[in-house]
């Protein structure tokens, strides 16, 4: 009796399995969606970090954009040049030279450089400290509570002597730190060279006020723009035109750095980071 | 306190939750208002109120008279700025206010003949404020004069007063509440003003009441100011103004709590007092309305309290707007050795600052200097879900939820728990046994929510 029951049960299941698998097989053929095999291949090459640095929601979105919309293949900052080359091969295009993207902190004030600090007892976060006056005199500079450090998924930004400092060996330029900075002093810059100059200051106040709050603040004196035309002064603040800097400009930038009375221009990049000793004197010995 | 009853009003004179911090008003409440002489320079930030920033209408090296308009607020929600001194405009520089606003400010160096501030104060405290001539002013005229005088709420928030009194057909005002609660600990400037210039307040109340066409005018005072109540009772004789004596409790002076405790009405979530047919104004604002309309004087001076155990001689002062905090503190004998924190405003809602050149603005109700003993050094610990902040919150919110949502960047939870209903009174932070900076986190959370709404 039991044997017969078991046989009926398994027989029914077997029959159902056969019928359903035929239906599935038919549906697979009938409702097939044509997927470009290149998408799969591109996705394979992309690093899968899903950082959003390319401007898409994740790697798969970018892969689709490359294949279907012919998006440039050099947008992935994590994969870098090698990745772009491989992607170019698949797409049959030529990979243009990519400028790797890195975060640049536009503040150079370490704890000793800052003037008029207050004893701050509030919540130790930049977003909270930004809403009260007098954590330090400067209302533009780095607060040093490390909202950017918490936002970084690559351990590439740290607070060194109360200044956010980028580790250019690790930074991939995804821009997570720039998004959370309440004072908007971090920007993502395409590096033309391994080391580029920057004006490590964001203070747009008039010279007297900028001097009163910080020892290394830019006062917009325009002396740097006289030495090198990659510096432009707007709103009492010198800005570096990163796109125009090449190794040929090195000499004139060093001249500008030496002339800068406020020592607010410094070189940043792989090998030197953004430290106090990336200021002219040490760099010249190199 | 259990026997407290408010008679003659629909409310109970009390509201739910809230706290009872030591009020420490005795430090300065008994010292008469002293008049400070005109300082050498005044710094006038171009945004001293809620709303749009003023446009400067003076140039460097221009000579200005007392009371001349130096900044014009063109938007509706904005207030003009008048020079509190006669002198020469030095420059338009930048200034950082204690609430972290970094904005342009006009600095004026005093020169030539000055108005005597003692005269302004004597005018204010005089007992001959007229009452019968009020009916000659049309409501629109009163609103216009208030706009031109640059009057804003002097209680702290500095909301332009003309917006409150402007005729508005869609929102009828039945009751004008005049807020003399001054629930913030340490501060006593409104208390002194009510004691010394009750007639000005009554005249201003009648004027403001006429402007909003209020059927009822009520002056609300907490029961820890018996002398002020007595003076006001004498001054309001033969008028229709009533006086509501309320229970001493923080934050009794907040508009939503005040409406609840006097009139028994709830203001809907996200609504304004005008939704309940109520207009609310501070006593100091009302006194400057009287001055603006009757004496045609703009808002250039205000009463501030300088108090706290960290100050040598706590005082109440009548100062020009734009004087530096340092000069005011110096006038009061400076700070003591164990002073630890200098706060613009009261200890509950004020902002700590350290830059002594920070100017006194229209919204500065006082300077509180706390000592090391008075401030907490304890380290923050984890939230233990004890619910004390929930019991203290006068808005019936869940502060710990809001704060932690802000800390962990979760604006959707913050919105769900109505973060924007919080008016940052500080009750939750005061009672929190874990020393979590709840209000600061909630403020951060509001920024987060605003940023999310924008994107």
UniProtKB/TrEMBL annotation, chain A:
Gene3D superfamilies to which the protein is assigned, alphabetical: 3.30.70.20, Electron transport complex subunit B, putative Fe-S cluster (1.10.15.40)
Domain 4Fe-4S ferredoxin-type: from-to ranges: 162-191
Cited NCBIfam families: rnfB (TIGR01944)
Residue numbers binding [4Fe-4S] cluster 3: 152, 171, 174, 177
GO cellular component annotations of the record: plasma membrane
Residues of the 4Fe-4S domain: 34-93
Key words, A-Z: 4Fe-4S, Cell membrane, Electron transport, Iron, Iron-sulfur, Membrane, Metal-binding, Repeat, Translocase, Transmembrane, Transmembrane helix, Transport
Complex formation: The complex is composed of six subunits: RnfA, RnfB, RnfC, RnfD, RnfE and RnfG.
UniProt-listed SUPFAM superfamilies: 4Fe-4S ferredoxins
Record note on cofactor: Binds 3 [4Fe-4S] clusters.
Chain residues that bind [4Fe-4S] cluster 2: 138, 142, 148, 181
Subcellular location: Cell membrane
Cofactor(s) named in the record: [4Fe-4S] cluster
Transmembrane segments: 6-24
Taxonomic superkingdom: Bacteria
A matching Pfam family: Fer4
Name of this protein: Ion-translocating oxidoreductase complex subunit B
Protein family (similarity comment): Belongs to the 4Fe4S bacterial-type ferredoxin family. RnfB subfamily.
One term of GO molecular function: metal ion binding
Enzyme class: translocase
Naturally occurring in which organism (per UniProt): Desulfonema magnum
Residues bound to [4Fe-4S] cluster 1: 51, 54, 59, 76
Region Hydrophobic: start-end pairs: 1-28
Entry EC no(s): 7.-.-.-
Function: Part of a membrane-bound complex that couples electron transfer with translocation of ions across the membrane.
């Amino acid at each position: 009796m039991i044997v017969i029951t078991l046989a009926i049960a398994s027989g029914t299941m077997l029959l159902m399995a056969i019928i359903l698998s035929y239906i599935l097989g038919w549906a697979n053929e009938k409702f097939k969606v044509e997927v470009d095999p290149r998408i799969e291949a591109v996705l394979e090459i992309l690093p899968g970090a899903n950082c959003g640095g390319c401007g898409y929601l994740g790697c798969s979105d970018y892969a689709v954009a490359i294949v279907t919309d012919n998006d440039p293949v050099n947008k992935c900052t994590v994969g870098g040049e090698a990745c772009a080359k491989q992607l170019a091969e698949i797409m049959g295009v030529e990979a243009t030279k990519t400028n790797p993207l890195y975060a640049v902190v536009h503040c150079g004030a370490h704890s000793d450089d800052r003037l008029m600090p207050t004893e701050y007892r509030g919540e130790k976060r930049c977003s909270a400290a930004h809403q009260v006056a007098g954590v330090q005199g400067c209302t533009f500079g780095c607060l040093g509570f490390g909202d950017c450090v918490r936002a970084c998924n690559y351990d590439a930004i740290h607070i060194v002597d109360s200044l956010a400092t980028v580790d250019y060996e690790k930074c991939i330029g995804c821009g997570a730190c720039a998004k959370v900075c309440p004072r908007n002093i971090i920007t993502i810059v395409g590096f033309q060279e391994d080391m580029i100059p920057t004006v490590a200051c964001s203070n747009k106040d008039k010279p007297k006020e900028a001097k009163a709050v910080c020892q290394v603040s830019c006062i917009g004196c325009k002396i740097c723009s006289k030495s090198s035309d990659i510096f432009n002064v707007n709103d009492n603040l010198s800005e570096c035109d990163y796109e125009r800097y090449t190794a040929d400009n090195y000499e004139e930038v060093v001249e500008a750095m030496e002339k800068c009375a406020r020592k607010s221009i410094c070189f940043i990049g792989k090998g030197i980071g953004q430290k106090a000793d990336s200021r002219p004197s040490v760099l010249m010995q190199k | 306190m259990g026997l407290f009853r408010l008679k003659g009003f629909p409310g109970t004179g009390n509201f739910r939750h809230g706290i009872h911090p030591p009020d420490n008003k005795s430090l300065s409440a008994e010292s008469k208002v002293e008049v400070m002489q005109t300082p050498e320079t005044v710094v006038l930030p171009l945004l001293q109120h809620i709303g749009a920033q003023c446009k400067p209408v003076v140039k460097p090296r221009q000579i200005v008279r007392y009371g001349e308009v130096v900044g014009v607020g063109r938007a509706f929600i904005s207030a003009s700025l008048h020079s509190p001194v006669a002198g020469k405009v030095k420059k338009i520089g930048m200034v950082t206010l204690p609430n972290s606003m970094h904005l342009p400010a006009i600095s004026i160096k005093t020169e030539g003949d000055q108005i005597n501030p003692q005269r302004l104060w004597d005018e204010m405290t005089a007992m001959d404020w007229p009452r019968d001539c009020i009916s000659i002013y049309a409501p629109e005229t009163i609103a216009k004069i208030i706009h031109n005088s640059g009057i804003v709420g002097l209680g702290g928030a500095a909301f332009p007063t003309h917006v409150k009194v402007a005729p508005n057909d869609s929102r009828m005002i039945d009751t004008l509440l005049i807020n003399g609660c001054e629930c913030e600990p340490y501060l006593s400037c409104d208390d002194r003003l009510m004691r010394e210039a009750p007639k000005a307040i009554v005249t201003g109340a009648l004027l403001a009441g006429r402007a909003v066409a209020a059927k009822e005018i009520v002056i609300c005072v907490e029961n820890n100011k018996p002398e002020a109540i007595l003076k006001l009772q004498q001054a309001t004789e033969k008028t229709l103004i009533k006086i509501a004596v309320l229970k001493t409790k923080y934050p009794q002076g907040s508009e939503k709590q005040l409406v609840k405790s006097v009139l028994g009405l709830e203001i809907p979530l996200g609504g304004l007092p005008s939704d309940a047919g109520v207009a609310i104004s501070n006593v100091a604002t009302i006194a400057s309305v009287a001055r603006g309309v009757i004496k045609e004087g703009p808002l250039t001076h205000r009463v501030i309290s300088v108090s706290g155990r960290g100050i040598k001689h706590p005082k109440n002062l009548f100062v020009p707007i734009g004087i530096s905090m340092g000069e005011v503190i110096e006038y009061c004998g400076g700070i003591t050795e164990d002073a630890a924190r200098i706060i613009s405003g009261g200890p509950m809602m004020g902002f700590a600052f350290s830059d002594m050149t920070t100017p006194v603005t229209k919204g500065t109700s006082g300077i509180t200097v706390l000592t090391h003993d008075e401030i907490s050094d304890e380290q923050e610990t984890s939230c233990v879900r004890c619910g004390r902040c929930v019991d203290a919150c006068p808005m019936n919110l869940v502060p710990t939820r809001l704060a932690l949502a802000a800390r962990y960047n979760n604006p959707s939870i913050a919105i769900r728990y109505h973060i924007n209903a919080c008016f940052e009174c500080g009750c939750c932070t005061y009672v929190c046994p874990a020393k979590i900076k709840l209000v600061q986190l909630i403020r951060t959370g509001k920024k987060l929510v605003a940023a999310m709404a924008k994107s």
